[in-house]
Write a structure and sequence with these properties.
Elements (H helix, E strand, L loop, with lengths): L2 H14 L3 H15 L11 H17 L8 H13 L6 H17 L5 H22 L2
Helix pairs in contact: 1-6, 2-3, 2-5, 4-6, 5-6
Length: 135
């Protein structure tokens, strides 16, 4: 990931933060629409789950300049997701729902360059989680 991509992701994320609750609703709505088989993984309060999702993304986005500092936590999260029943292919649906949500929330600010940067971030994080979870 280039320094410019890091800036694009961090700047666009600042635009999402004020609407993070709505973004979480959009994300899970889209995820369950395109991958209804993952809905049973979520047994708790979805509002709280959305807050956790937004907090996790916020932590990762803020650490992009020093990603190695959060790698252990990301790896642990990947291992925990196996216990919930998450399969490697589920990460594709999550990524698609995330990109769709960002596009919906950012509108015209979600340029092709911003999208490419977010895809790079998500792929890096998902690959880190899967490598730890499915050794």
């Amino acid at each position: 990931m280039t320094p410019e991509q890091v800036v694009m992701v961090q700047d666009s994320w600042k635009q999402v933060l004020p609407i993070s609750e709505k973004a979480a609703e959009l994300f899970y709505g889209r995820l369950f629409e395109i991958a209804p088989e993952v809905q049973p993984y979520f047994k708790g309060d979805m509002t709280e789950q959305g807050r956790k999702l937004m907090a996790m993304i916020n932590t990762a986005v803020n650490a992009l300049n020093e990603l190695e500092s959060v790698v252990p936590a990301i790896q642990e999260m990947g291992v925990r997701h196996v216990a919930y029943g998450v399969k490697p292919e589920d990460y594709d649906s999550v990524g698609a729902a995330l990109i769709w949500t960002l596009e919906a929330g950012l509108g015209d600010a979600f340029t092709d360059e911003v999208k490419d940067a977010w895809v790079k971030v998500y792929t890096t994080l998902a690959d880190t989680m899967k490598a730890a979870a499915y050794k």
